[in-house]
């Protein structure tokens, strides 16, 4: 502001700022900002002139006129009163509906409280019923166990009494036999087995045996019914064993010849004949005796199982011919059968108790649910008397809640059953894999034993011809010692080749004419070239080699021929001395030596040829450089 005033003073020295009005001062400031400071204002009313007092007066007059023109009312009063009456009626109905809704909410809350109390009482009663059912099931199981123990004690008492009777009969029989034998034998003779059997067959002894405590059969014998039942049970056991073995070998994909026992029709025929020929009480007693004997045999069989002892007693016997025989006692197939039977019996008893308990709980729950449904229907009927819609709605809600609870319980039970079955399936699969792995291990062990047996047989066979092989090795060793001096000759033939690369790569001066690679290429066209070409073909002399090496090559071949002839003569003499078989072996040895020498020459040539080619390339480049140098010198 001060700067603007100073500029105003500078621009117009005669202007008095204090004497200016606010409007003039504002106008001067706007002109200074626009003209001197180059300020361009932006907006809707920027360039509009400022309102004056007259403008305010005109605006106020217009507002007053507008307000005074809207004071009159021209509406229909009857319509307004009608609408107000309808509005009042609607408000009154709304208040009534709100009061009814509040009352309904209160009743619903009261019903919810009653339902919660009923559910709590139902849960308490259900827990009491469950505890009573559990106690009753345990009590019934305990009573059944006590009855079983009492029956077992009674059976044991009967067995002991029978054993006592048998022992008394045996004592009487022994006393009678002793008296009878003492009265009949001579002083210098002893009773033999046949004499004792003869005395047993006497009528008095048979009468004694037949009159023991009212038994229908003699002591130590079995009746016809018992024998028939036992034979039929053995036949059924053989049939079931065959079925089991067929299923087992089908599972492991193997075949085993199984004896053909009696068929199912024959077994049924025998059973029907036994039922027709003997009374039921005899058949039952025979089955009891057979079952007891079988149980005793099974108990004795399982008690003799000892895996540690079987593993320690595992041994083989080595026989002639490389055959291994298993001398250990074969393991029994009924390992831990008694334990498995007891475990399955315990599991079956537990499942039976659980099933009975579940059935009792289900029956109690259904009866309790029926009574609860009847009680809820009575309460709903008494609560919503005169309101059929509310009663139906409450019943539908209650039924929906029951269905939801039942569905949730069914879903939980299905989940538990699915998890239990999955676990059982996993366990059965693991058990099956274990059995299969053990079977594979057994097969692998059998294969290993067979392979070892074959190896042992091969070793025995090799040992049987070891003497012949030893003699052959001695003959070969003698031949090698005889031909060892010729190894020096072979080394002498090969050693010049090892000295060739140093000669080629030496720093000696070589004439340019000897560096040509075409000296032997067109030897046929030259005079006397046919003989030289034939000589080159006979000696297998390469054309890329220098001609100076032809004479040493010919001399070397001549020496080789002479040495070979001398060697053949000496070898022929040795062959005549040793024999025809040794001669063949010597020839084979010479062929192998020749092959080795040929291979060594080929290797040396393969190593030498690239270097010779490289040397020829260097010579060619040097010759071209010399020619270029000569041309340059001639041109200069």
TrEMBL record:
It holds the Pfam family HAUS5. InterPro entries: AUG5_plant (IPR044706), HAUS5 (IPR029131). GO terms for biological process: spindle assembly. Residues 1-20, 63-88 are annotated as: Disordered. Residues 1-10, 74-88 have a biased composition (Basic and acidic residues). GO terms for cellular component: HAUS complex; spindle microtubule. It comes from the Eukaryota. PANTHER family: AUGMIN SUBUNIT 5 (PTHR34968). This is HAUS augmin-like complex subunit 5. It comes from Nematostella vectensis (Starlet sea anemone). The lineage of its organism: Eukaryota, Metazoa, Cnidaria, Anthozoa, Hexacorallia.
């Amino acid at each position: 502001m001060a700067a603007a005033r100073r500029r105003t003073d500078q621009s117009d020295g005669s202007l008095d700022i204090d004497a200016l009005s606010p409007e003039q001062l504002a106008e001067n400031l706007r002109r200074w900002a626009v003209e001197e400071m180059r300020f361009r204002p932006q907006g809707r009313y920027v360039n509009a002139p400022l309102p004056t007092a007259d403008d305010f007066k005109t605006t106020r007059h217009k507002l007053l006129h507008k307000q005074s023109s809207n004071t009159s009312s021209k509406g229909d009063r009857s319509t307004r009163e009608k609408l107000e009456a309808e509005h009042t009626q609607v408000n009154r109905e709304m208040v009534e509906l709100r009061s009814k809704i509040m009352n309904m909410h209160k009743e619903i809350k009261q019903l919810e409280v009653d339902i919660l109390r009923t559910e709590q009482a139902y849960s308490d009663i259900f827990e009491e019923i469950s505890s009573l059912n559990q106690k009753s099931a345990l009590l019934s199981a305990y009573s059944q166990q006590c009855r079983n123990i009492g029956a077992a004690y009674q059976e044991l008492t009967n067995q002991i009494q029978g054993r006592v009777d048998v022992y008394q009969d045996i004592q009487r029989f022994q006393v009678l036999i002793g008296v009878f034998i003492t009265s009949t034998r001579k002083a210098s003779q002893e009773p033999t087995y046949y004499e004792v059997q003869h005395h047993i067959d006497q009528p008095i002894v048979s009468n004694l045996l037949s009159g023991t405590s009212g038994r229908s059969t003699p002591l130590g014998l079995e009746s016809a019914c018992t024998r028939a039942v036992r034979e039929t049970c053995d036949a059924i056991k053989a049939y079931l064993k065959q079925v089991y073995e067929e299923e087992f070998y089908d599972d492991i994909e193997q075949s085993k010849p199984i004896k053909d026992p009696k068929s199912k029709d024959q077994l049924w025929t025998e059973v029907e004949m036994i039922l027709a020929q003997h009374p039921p009480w005899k058949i039952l007693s025979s089955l009891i005796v057979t079952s007891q004997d079988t149980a005793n045999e099974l108990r004795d069989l399982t008690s003799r199982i000892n895996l540690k002892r079987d593993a320690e007693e595992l041994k083989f016997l080595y026989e002639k011919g490389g055959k291994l025989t298993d001398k250990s006692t074969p393991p029994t197939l009924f390992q831990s059968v008694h334990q498995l039977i007891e475990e399955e019996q315990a599991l079956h008893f537990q499942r039976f108790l659980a099933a009975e308990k579940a059935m009792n709980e289900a029956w109690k729950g259904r009866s309790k649910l029926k009574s609860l449904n009847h009680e809820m229907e009575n309460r709903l009927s008494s609560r919503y008397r005169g309101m059929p819609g509310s009663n139906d709605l409450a019943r539908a809600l209650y039924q929906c809640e029951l269905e939801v609870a039942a569905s949730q319980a069914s879903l939980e039970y299905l989940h538990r059953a699915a998890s239990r079955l999955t676990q059982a399936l996993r366990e059965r699969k693991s058990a099956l894999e274990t059995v299969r792995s053990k079977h594979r291990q057994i097969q692998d062990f059998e294969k290993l034993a067979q392979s070892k047996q074959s190896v042992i047989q091969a070793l025995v066979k090799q040992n049987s011809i070891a003497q012949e092989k030893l003699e052959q090795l001695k003959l070969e060793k003698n031949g090698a010692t005889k031909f060892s001096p010729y190894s020096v000759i072979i080394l002498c033939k090969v050693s010049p080749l090892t000295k060739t690369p140093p000669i080629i790569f030496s720093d000696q001066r070589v004439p340019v004419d000897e560096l040509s690679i075409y000296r032997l290429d067109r030897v046929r066209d030259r005079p006397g070239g046919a003989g030289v070409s034939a000589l080159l073909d006979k000696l297998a002399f390469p054309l890329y080699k220098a001609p100076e090496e032809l004479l040493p090559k010919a001399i070397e071949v001549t020496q080789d021929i002479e040495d070979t002839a001398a060697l053949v003569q000496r070898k022929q003499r040795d062959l005549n001395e040793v024999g025809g078989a040794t001669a063949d072996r010597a020839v084979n040895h010479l062929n192998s030596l020749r092959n080795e020498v040929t291979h060594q020459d080929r290797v040396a040539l393969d190593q030498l040829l690239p270097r010779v080619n490289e040397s020829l390339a260097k010579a060619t480049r040097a010759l071209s450089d010399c020619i270029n140098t000569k041309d340059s010198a001639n041109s200069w």
